[in-house]
Amino acid sequence: MFSSNFRRPVYLIFSTLFFGLTSLVAIFAEESATPIELEKIVVTPGRFTIYEGASARISLSKQEIERFPLIDNDVMRAGHVFPGVISSDYSARFSVRGGEKNDISVRLDGMELYNPYHLQDFGGAVSLIGLELIQDTQLLMGGFPAAYGEKMSGVFDIKTRSPNTEQLTANFGIDLINATATLEGPLTEKGGWLLSARRGYIDLILALMEIDENYNPQYADVYGKFTYQVTPEDTLTFNGLYGWDKNRIRVDDVDNNLDSQYDNSTAWAKWRHTFGNSHWTDFFVFAGTSSQDRMTGKADLDNRDFRFFGSKAEFTSNVFDKHTFHGGIRWQWSTAQYRYDVQERQAGVNVYNPILADVDDSGNEFNAFVQDEWQLHSKFALNVGGRYVHQMYREEGIQRYEIGPRIALAIKPTDNLVLRSAWGIYHQPVSLMGIPVEDGIETVGRAEKAVHYIVGAEYTPADNFLVRVEGYYNTFDNLVGRLREFGRQNQVFAPPQSGDARGLDVFMTHAVSNRLTWTLGYAYGIAKEIAGGTEIFRQHDRRHSFAISSNYRFAPTWHLYLSWRFYTGEPRTPLESNKVLLDDGRFACDRQFGEVHSARMPAYHSLDFRITKRSSYRRWELSWYFQILNLYNHRNLDQYAFSEVRDEKTEVITDCVIEEEPLFPIVPTLGVTVNF
Q1: CA-CA distance, 151 to 134, in Å (whole number)?
Q2: Smallest Cα–Cα separation from 611: which of 67, 52, 7?
Q3: Alpha-carbon distance values, 449 to 10, 99, 103, 203, 312 (Å)
């Protein structure tokens, strides 16, 4: 367990950074009152709407997202504010509606990314994509159409902005835990380029502090984009994303150390050809690599190496202003090597079981989809489609393909009311890059499966007021494993075989004036699973969650954002640790687990605020923010963990205790961005 004393260095990092940057506030001067128009970040719990033949859009502008009190201004954390999303202070990852965190597809400019997170040993605390790169984002939380595949709970679909093709510009920013530099400009009159690099400096701050623990987390990423208009009908786009992580914790502690390194790279090219204004094709070629080398404890190993390349083609056609036909095919070749040798604790008894996995495999996979969005009437729209998945490298004797039909409809009985419903079968293939070797599985079997049933309504009594209510029931089958959060997971139990989730999400937003807006979200949910023949609550079962926020512009370029969040605790397994006298007279700790998920964590609540200011000058622009998370310093808990109390001189165990591991304390921070 590597996080027992993580709270103190995190708090010291935030405090040091805050007091070091506060002196920069004095340099801010008068600003231009000209409003800056930014692109929309679109969030859709169910993606079907009568207006576009697809979904209801609960939209937040990128400008609004930049005012949220978020750790590191992380675009993935922006999704945490919506009902039905289950998240943690420590992680940018999230789950939706009772699913697991690895049930979410993260797409960037049409490409699904593999594990796009930094600080994997702390739950994936930072995503690889910076907010300054974003054009728009959609969060799809159920009932999404056939064009989105591979995952069974949700989609986080990100589109990056186009490079500046008129002049060379630069952007430099520093915030809570990293520094970013972005350059962009024209290449010719037909194209442009963008390059962004980011370096986390947690390790540099820790080196200046006197702390008891030996932490050395490092990470960096680079993103590049190039666009070129070959002809009026043909556009080429090249994208590349690379992330690197390294972490060393308690290297001198042979029982509780960690030495890890991660590399993750994806590159792809897209050729778009348009036929008039209503038809176009997208052809992709892509390749990537990923590696993970981890050593923990005395000899535990978890080493993984992946490589892949492939291509895909998609066709979109708008027919007679009533049909939008969308279809595509995708092929990918993958190779994977695993070397997994870890001593896992058996649930309920003080016994360690060796889990060994040695995998070296490669193979092809193929999938295709078709869907038709049909505006049958001015008050009625329909979306029908399906996906086909085929994996050649599955275990012998296992069916190698699945077919998943999907259907959704919307009815608009009045101008301000839309009723929606959706049903679909969603398959999540176990790829060579996702074999759950933690559960001793070394081969690929059938895809995991979910069935979504969704009913909802959206009411807009005025242009500035929206109410959305959505009920859901999801079933899960063929489950083969669960995500392990390295460094933050203190027990491993038998994986579930099946499960279900049901609940209700409510979202309201009201623009009271051009200066004041507020939002309110509430979610009720129950998520259960069958594990080892017993029904238990799922890890991300959260009965009630509530959030209210307000954004107030008290001057032309000054904004104040307030947010209060509350949710009931998630399931936990009781822990017990007792001293045992050994034959040699020393003490050892007898660690026992209680009934799985038979208890609950305490409720979570936090008040956050943020002030943002934008100052424009003749040739450059300065933006800054000051925020405080957990303003009244409530002690929220992340989990309970085993801990040993040792004598400072002899290192002999004197007591065995269960320790509370907290989430963030009060966290004041300041961030600055300069644009040239």
Answers
A1: 22
A2: 67
A3: 38, 12, 11, 41, 23
| Tokens of residue 603, six digits | 């409720």
DSSP per position, 517-533: EEEEEEEEEEEEEEETT
Give the separation between CA 513 and CA 74, rounded to whole angstroms: 28
Q: What are the tokens at 551?
A: 């954004």
Spatial CA neighbour of 88 closest among 76, 80, 96, 98: 80
Of 21-30, 274-283, 435-444, the range with the highest mean pLDDT is 274-283
How far apart CA 428 and CA 450 sit, in angstroms, is 8
| Residue 60 confidence class, pLDDT cut points 50, 70, 90 | low
Q: What is the pLDDT of residues 105-121, one digit of tens each?
A: 999 999 999 989 998 88
Is residue 648 scored above 90 in pLDDT?
no
CB 482 within 8 A of CB 494: no
The DSSP secondary structure of 248-261, one letter per residue, reads: EE-TT-TTT-EEEE
Q: Which residues contact 533 (CB under 8 A, 6 or more apart)?
A: none
Q: What is the DSSP letter of 215?
A: B
Q: Is pLDDT at 347 greater than 90 in this prediction?
A: no
CA distance linking residue 178 with residue 161, whole number of Å:
22
- Say yes or no to pLDDT of 48 above 50: no
Pick from 112, 114, 108: nearest CA to 307? 114
CA distance 385 to 409: 12
Neighbour tally for 586: CB within 10 Å? 11
What does the chain come to in residues? 676
For the record, the structure tokens of 60 come out as 């937040």
Q: What are phi and psi of 265, to 5 degrees?
A: -140, 140
Residue 328 forms beta bridges with which residues?
Answer: 314, 369
Q: What's residue 329's pLDDT?
A: 97
DSSP E strand boundaries for 556-620: 558-567, 571-572, 575-581, 587-593, 599-600, 604-616
E strand or H helix that includes residue 75: helix 75-78
Of 84-93, 267-276, 519-528, minimum mean pLDDT range: 84-93
Position 231 pLDDT exceeds 60? yes
Tokens 């049933």, located at residue: 453
* Residue 41 pLDDT > 70: no
Mean pLDDT in residue range 250-267: 80
